[in-house]
Amino acid sequence: MPENINLIIQIIAASGVIVSVVYLGIQIHQQNNITRAQFGHSLTQRLYERYFQTTKDAEFSKFLAKDWSSSDLDNTEKWRVNHFLLMCLVDIFDVYDKVQNNFVDRIHLDMRMNSLRLGVIKTKLGKNVWNFMKTTRSEEFVTWFESEIFDKDDDSFDEVSREELKDLNIIR
């Protein structure tokens, strides 16, 4: 009889361990989902903040609307272009790494890449910034980025949209 009691106690203890491990797995899964959501929210918030600041700052908006491929840019404007593009690239580096580590969904990267693909990184200044910054990234990233930016034609705008946007620094 004591042997049966010991066996029952061992079965109960083993069951408790199994339930604890399952519960811990569920908790870890939920925490991972919460962390992914927080990363995604912070990336979206960062983009919204950038858009909002642009709408509030008329002078900066005028700068963004300039033709960055123009030879009319003075040294200050070239400096600003370089740093704006550096900011965009650093943002993409961060988001790419988060996507690769499965911390955020790919949509966060796609939004940013679509903006760059439209043209600003394809200007002479943009290519110079990219050539400077690509030395900090892996060959895998460089190959991916260059195929996404320079090897794809963006047909997402129809001719009416292109005509409406031709004077903005969006499509060059």
Based on Cα principal axes, name the global outline.
Answer: elongated
Q: How far is the first residue's CA from the last residue's CA?
A: 86 Å
Please describe the biggest sheet, giving its number of strands, its sense, and whether it closes into a barrel.
none
Report the C-alpha radius of gyration, rounded.
Answer: 25 Å
Q: Average pLDDT across residues?
A: 83
**What's the total count of β strands?**
0
Low-confidence segments: none
Can you give a write-up of this model?
The protein is mainly α and 172 residues long. The chain folds into two domains: 1-56; 58-172, no CATH class. 74% of the residues lie in helices and 0% in strands. The chain contains seven helices and no strands. It has helices at residues 2-56, 58-65, 75-100, 107-117, 124-133, 139-149, 159-165. Helix 3 crosses helix 5 (124-133). It is elongated, with a radius of gyration of 25 Å. It starts with a helix and ends in a 7-residue tail after the last helix. The mean pLDDT is 83.
